[in-house]
Fold Glucose-1-phosphate thymidyltransferase.
Amino acid sequence: MKALIAAGGRATRFRPLTWSMNKHLLPLAGKPMIFYPIENVVNAGVKEIAININPGDTEVRSVVGDGSRWRVKITYIEQQGGPLGIAHAVYNAREFLGEDEPFIFHLGDNIFRAGIKNIVDRFLNTGLHCALTLSRAPNLKELGVAEFGSDGRLVRVVEKPQIPPSDLAVTGVYIYDKHFFEAFKHMRPSARGEYEISDIHTWLIQNGFRVGYDIVDGWWKDPGRPDQLLDGNILAMNTLPHESYVIEGQMDPSVQIQGLVKVEKGTKIGPNVLIRGPVIIGEECEIRNTFIGPFTTIGSGCVIDGAEIEHSVLLDNVTLKDIGRIDGSMIGRHVTIVSRQKTLPMSGHRLIVGDHSIVEL
């Protein structure tokens, strides 16, 4: 099977971070979010992957590459016709996928603790036309939700229901055979102008095709908002194997390390630093006079002096200087935060803040 991974869209709820970068490149446990679905489909046996991207997007290509790091072939397909829904993104890739072969469709911002091999095996071994994964989720009004008949059978999928028909949402991994394209020919745009993937599933069910499902074992995460991405970062860090937490940077003898900590090459830490893991710190950072608490990931090239940081994600090339405590935060690339006490006048706050920012003072 081939696989298609969706990495388009504008991710307006992540602005201002996504004004300058693709949401699917935001880090979880120290690596781009999109690496998780790539690893999922590779572990399921896929050798050829296409990634759906926005027209003109070069950043995803440059970060992900040609697939050689996973020993697969990755190509890129630009979305045509504008944002017409994820079902249209699949249809847009029909030449790559072939209209006669089964394939995996994986949203690029969904992560799964147990991977997807079980549902792929079920699809291949039980003669299904479509296989879905379901999971209990708190934000059902933002997702496609499964509806079951009185006999317990799946009867349809309702997109973003005001009154959810069950507590089981359809997660972002789907497996189809050639009948996906037959179903798409019967689709019409929804009230919001999109070809809904939920309508594909409902059409297949109501027209007698075999649509199976598994309930996800453990957690899955669809980070649709910054606080959900922070939750996803915790989950991803908790599932990293202990052997991946390796200290390769230079450590001052005074540095205190408690718990699992990963420090990449070229980073210099200390003096007067306490790190309480799990913590991941990227390459070429300089950190001193700082406390770094659990579930914090720090990108490459960061400079931190005189701060307390916990449960936060810092992207590359952040500078923090004499700022006190930061908790539950996401800080974008090339951001500088310094103490108001180090500039004149010494009272008040000086802010240069872009659209859709969140600041607490």
